[in-house]
Design goal:
212 residues, alpha/beta, Rossmann fold, Dihydrodipicolinate Reductase, domain 2, 8 helices, 10 strands
Length: 212
């Protein structure tokens, strides 16, 4: 991997590994910019952010499957008083989840809408690493992860991935809802998340930044 990084100009990380941080650190140490799709693994990564700045390269984190990240970043300058994320996904998105198995939650027995989790963003990312990259993205964009409350909901009737964001502060109030079709190749993620990664790469290469 070391040789591969040295011979590349730009790295795209989408390995879905248990810990992608060493891989990203290796690339940043080699002064290579990185686009990471595993934002959930980078929630507490101020060291990597500092390394990217020190080596004058970029660590790009796409907006993913939620709308309004540009507005959230702008609002953070005035201060955010309250922020919540409610994610609704089909049962298939949570198959083989160790946290649910530990809690004795059997997805096949569910007959109605059920809240699987409600709590802090760091716990959400730890218990649902394949489902909730949007929570980490929102936490980083808002710059107030301790205020972010995450709710994860499922139902036999859900067929799409729906993310609702609400926040209030001195700037006013923002509410967004993104109703995503699932990725054809991976039901645990949204198609928009893939498109967001592609657009981030395109924007980086073009040198033109549209939006905040």
């Amino acid at each position: 991997m070391t040789g591969l990084i040295k011979n590349c100009d730009f790295m795209i990380e989408a390995v879905n590994a248990e810990d992608t941080r060493p891989l990203i650190r290796q690339a940043l140490n080699a002064k290579r910019s990185v686009l990471s799709m595993s934002v959930g693994k980078l929630l507490n990564s101020s060291d990597l952010f500092a390394l990217a700045q020190k080596n004058r390269c970029h660590l790009l984190l796409p907006s993913g499957a939620i709308a309004g990240i540009d507005a959230v970043k702008a609002a953070s300058l005035a201060g955010i008083d309250r922020i919540t994320l409610t994610s609704r996904k089909p049962l298939s998105a949570f198959s083989e989840n160790p946290y649910l198995a530990q809690k004795g939650i059997v997805l096949s027995e569910m007959e109605k809408e059920t809240v699987l989790f409600e709590g802090h963003v760091s716990d959400a990312c730890r218990h649902f690493p394949k489902n909730i990259n949007v929570a980490a993205t929102l936490a980083l964009a808002s710059r107030c992860p301790r205020k972010l409350i995450v709710r994860i909901v499922t139902s036999p009737e859900y067929t799409t991935n729906i993310h609702e964001v609400e926040l209030e502060g001195k700037f006013g109030r923002i509410k967004t809802q993104t109703d995503n079709l699932v990725c054809p190749d991976n039901p645990k993620t949204s198609y928009l998340a893939v498109l967001s990664g592609l657009q981030t790469l395109k924007q980086h290469c073009s040198g033109v930044l549209v939006g905040t």
